[in-house]
Amino acid sequence: MPTQEQHLLLSVVAGLLLLFFHPATSKSTIEPCSNSDTCPAILGYTLYTDLKVSEVASLFQIDPISLLTLNSIDISYPDVENHILPAGLPLDVPVPCSCVDGIRKSVSTRYKTRPSDTLTLIADTVYAGLVSADQLREANSISDPSVLDVGVSLVVPLPCTCFNGTDNGLPAVYLSYVVTADDSLAGIARRYTTTVTDLMNVNAMGSGAIQAGDILAVPLPACASRFPKFASDYGLMVPNGSYAITASHCVQCSCGPGNLNLYCMPASLAVSCSSMQCKNSGLMLGNVTWKQSAAGCSVTSCTYGGFVNGSIVTTLSTSLQPRCPGPQLFPPLVAPPSFVAKHSTFAPAPAPESQGGIAATPLSSTVPSTGSLPGLVTPANGPAGSASGVSSARSITDTPNALPILLISLWLVNFVMHYSSL
Question: How many domains does the chain fold into?
Fold first, then answer.
């Protein structure tokens, strides 16, 4: 019979093992809000299986062309919407970020349940950890998660932040990034050309410790538009190193490289677009002319002013600049990917100081028709984010001190068993 001391030792071992195997809590940055406005946001998403471009777009209820342009994927390829993207491919997904129940989240996504679906499968696999099973259950008032009818349309609340569209006083779009087991905060900072300090400030982190399943808000430098509030594309922001399509696929805008000045031009994608010529001039949208003089360089440009009541607004402006501009540079385009290269990423290249780029007009002949298929701490001088816990199991290997704890536990068990036999 085990003595009181033996019971005590067994309790210690049990406590260590419970600590060892106890589910950890993943954290997600939450932005409190009190108004009804929306902002553009981005989700860092990894394909769970081979999917057509149109299927990925349908999964998030977004425009396939917007998905491609955000990732700087060339839309001039034939039947590009039916191109099959490979499993494991990281993509940036544009979503609107709203204020719901006092916090920022994207609630425009719906998912229709299929046979053998579970909330955990939908959350962890289909949406790659961007939402949790508990969040799906709460958002859809599901009392019994074990009973999930086929064909039910579920609201999928997805993480997003706005932070007034700025980071350190400069225009920025925020990406929601799901941390993987191989990630470090320094590695994420390098990937998105930012700093560990900036990530910690944005996410209100007391330390640089992260774990798989955490969702971080990552600021991406962007080109901001200045369209009037009555324009349908008011608030358009384009992450540096990428493109955006607007005005019913008639206008294509780009950001960078080398600066954060939004540049828009005819997309040459649709056959029925309103006039894109600036009044009282022969200049078309995107055209720039200049003339050198002793006083400097007189630059005249025809710029995009938003999409209002189905019409493309253009503005003619003239300014005197110290030097004449060079050719317009464009972010590099990539072919629609068919395989995942090692360390592949299609995240925007947010480095405004970079001087590389393409000086020619981006390839774009015709627009394919869009298809469809089935802690709360405010950091000093930083956005007012907060850390929210989301239930998530953590494996043994996720804990840095796991091996020592396991060895000690096994030694104690062996000691107790040996002592009990005496």
Answer: 2
